[in-house]
């Protein structure tokens, strides 16, 4: 779950084993107090079940894991869009129906790949994030007033966490860019409102 760069640069088995811990620390250990992580402890108000239900219906993620000994997750590679029988086992008791509920392309069919009428949005992510490829764009870019900002060596959500003296320069830069875009949009909206009032 760590940075692909961290794993790629590992020169020893120990460095390779530590790489996922480094990535998880960015997201799950902002206080620095955690020494290890319970991967399968889903006691946090059942939140994990909401995500897995979405994954079993219309938020199908196009990635997989190689399984032990390569990573701590079950082997699911190679990824394909075939129905996962475990979804049926997990949700059959609440009415899950594969034929009507498994829609791996629903998001793209419903909303498309481009958003010509959207405006004033900042999407942020980090290049150390497992979900990077699922974002709108995985590079720093913009189309009109829709921006994609990537935090170097960060994960999604890093930029909206409380500032910390140990924050990287990259996340500080992304936060400043976000603030500048929002200020500009507010200024433009105020200007448009004032102009509209003057023409009445």
Automatic annotation (TrEMBL):
Assigned keywords, A-Z: Glycoprotein, Hydrolase, Protease, Signal
Record bears the keyword Protein biosynthesis: no
One term of GO molecular function: serine-type exopeptidase activity
Superkingdom of source: Eukaryota
Alphabetized Pfam families for the sequence: Peptidase_S28
Record-level GO BP terms: proteolysis
Entry similarity comment: Belongs to the peptidase S28 family.
Name of the molecule in the record: Uncharacterized protein
